[in-house]
Amino acid sequence: MADTTKAQPVSSAALRRQMLAEFWFYFSENRGAVIGLFVFIALVIVAVFAPFIAPHSPFEQYRDAVLVPPVWVEKGNASYLLGTDAVGRDILSRLIYGAQYSLFIGLFVTTLSLTGGILVGLIAGYYRGWVDTVIMRLMDIILAFPSLLLALVLVAILGPSLTNGMIAIALTLQPHFVRLTRAAVMAEKTRDYVTAARISGAGPFRLMFRTILPNCTAPLIVQATLSFSNAILDAAALGFLGMGAQPPAPEWGTMLAEAREFILRAWWVVTFPGLAILITVLAINLMGDGLRDALDPKMKRS
Amino acid sequence: MFGFLLRRLAVLIPTFIGVSIIAFAFIRLLPGDPVALLSGERVMSPERHAQISAQLGLDRPMVIQYLDYLGGVLQGNFGSSIVSKTPILKQFMALFPATVELSFCAILIAIAIGIPAGVIAAIKRGSAIDQSMMGIALVGYSMPIFWWGLLLIILFSGILQWTPVSGRISLMYFFKPVTGFMLIDSLLSGQKGAFASAVSHLILPSIVLATIPLAVIARQTRSAMLEVLSEDYIRTARAKGLSPFRVVSLHALRNAMIPVITTIGLQIGVMLAGAILTETIFSWPGIGKWMVDSVFRRDYPVIQGGLLLIAGIIMVVNLIVDVLYGLINPRIRH
């Protein structure tokens, strides 16, 4: 029998490892992104192990230690490193438990808007025609409202709570995923590999989810990171306006709302919760910039 | 160009109808009796209920009610507030100049700092200046502005005592609004110190509201400049021996501005969302605070009307930006 050159099968595990290595190469070139990633990992650890890390309960009110300043300020107390709030709760412990809220909000809202957006976007981009027109007009309508205003009004309808706030925010973030998915699907749909898959008998579901979707992931991942930080910011803003998580929940925005009346007397009750929000959002945005550079050379900014 | 405008309008009209349906449906989605919600009366006899229902037209079919509402809206009748009983459009017109004044100053700050910062960062690409500017821009972009406002109040109003904490002008001054813009009205009043007072009230809220647009504009300007600076015609201009200043300001900046103008237009929506928080923190009597107060007072007709008015304004502004964009960049008209 004649020697035939055997096609070298590329193991998918090796391929995946190579892709991951390549991704890490580009991602790690961006110093800010790596710092963001480490801060984010630290936040996840703090949130998961909050009960072991926090020195006090986030709800325990130490009535003899009301508005104690941070430890490095005169009259500070080493037991309350970042001071206490107006009813004597330890601010550091509340911030640590607050990380659970923020990360959960980001995860929940992003998952909800991402899955919803992908589903609707795939349908719009795949079927086109009147389905597409109706969906895209609906998305235009949602985008015509400022997101925070729409979320605020939705919460006013549904009733102020963290769950309703998260659903409202997810709804306002979803159109971005729909638009991205639809655009990517339309670009991919006419490519040869899709035609090949269709001719070999793949049904619409297989075509949408197995053939086309995996090739549209890069912009979606970048948008998901942006949504994660937006969700945290908007949820904190709703909490601040009294329409998100309700007291005594140690959610950072809600903590700020409770601290507002003390701003000129006790700077620490205002400063630290906001700083926590800023650091979290900044870390995620830094990661987002790095992801964008690593995943999509076309979108590279510099 | 005319066809382009028509196409944009063709998209705008169904969107506006959709927005009005959402604003209309809103009160029907609320738990509870719409008659009680719209009249603001909690306990009423069945006769009174039927009377108000007929008075408000709530006993008619839903489609008729919607068309009636839409007809009213198109004639400028948005209904009346439950709490103050005044027409919604009148309230809106009284408060809107305050928001416009604040947003205008904010966008001015954002453009005046954001564009030069982006240009400098692009020219000095990779340098310490570039990195620190873009670092600051990312911090600004990530800023919870409600907290940023509180920090500025602590520093400038609390510790330094330079600026007042809230409002549009000191209570010492009183004059009839002419234009609704405090900066202009205070000058027209001729009262000594009134203008300075108006400026000192405006400065902190403007900075807070400018923060996110400033960061976005700086980042966008930098990336647009970087793209343009690598083009062939820039190299030609340099090779001709033009001064670097001329190359940047005359050749590069002009083309880099095209995407930046779109970005600035898109910031209007961001501003109106930011105004909700900024006006609440600084007790600025504009439409953002009006909406938040109405949500708390459960003044549903106001929420409904405000939602529609704000969305309408954003849609019109976006249309204007689109048309301007078409004017400066003929390529996208088709």
UniProtKB/TrEMBL annotation, chain A:
Domain ABC transmembrane type-1: 99-288
Gene3D superfamilies per UniProt: MetI-like
Example of a GO cellular component annotation carried by this entry: plasma membrane
Keywords linked to the UniProt accession: Cell membrane, Membrane, Peptide transport, Protein transport, Transmembrane, Transmembrane helix, Transport
Pfam families given in the database record: BPD_transp_1, OppC_N
Protein localization: Cell membrane
Listed transmembrane segments: 33-54, 103-127, 147-173, 266-287
GO terms (BP aspect): protein transport
Membrane topology field: Multi-pass membrane protein
Statement: the UniProt record of this protein carries the keyword Membrane: yes
Signal peptide interval: none
CDD domains: TM_PBP2
Recorded GO MF terms: dipeptide transmembrane transporter activity
Assigned protein family: Belongs to the binding-protein-dependent transport system permease family.
UniProt-recorded name of the protein: ABC transporter permease subunit
Organism (species): Rhizobium straminoryzae
From TrEMBL, chain B:
InterPro entries linked to this entry: BPD_transp_1_N, MetI-like, MetI-like_sf
Subcellular location: Cell membrane
GO molecular function: dipeptide transmembrane transporter activity
Keyword set, alphabetical order: Cell membrane, Membrane, Transmembrane, Transmembrane helix, Transport
Protein name per UniProt: ABC transporter permease subunit
One Pfam short name: BPD_transp_1_N
Signal peptide extent: none
Main location: membrane
Membrane topology: Multi-pass membrane protein
Domain ABC transmembrane type-1: 96-325
The family this protein is said to belong to: Belongs to the binding-protein-dependent transport system permease family.
Transmembrane region(s): 9-30, 100-123, 135-162, 194-217, 256-282, 302-328
Keyword presence, Cytoplasm: no
Gene Ontology CC entries for this record: plasma membrane
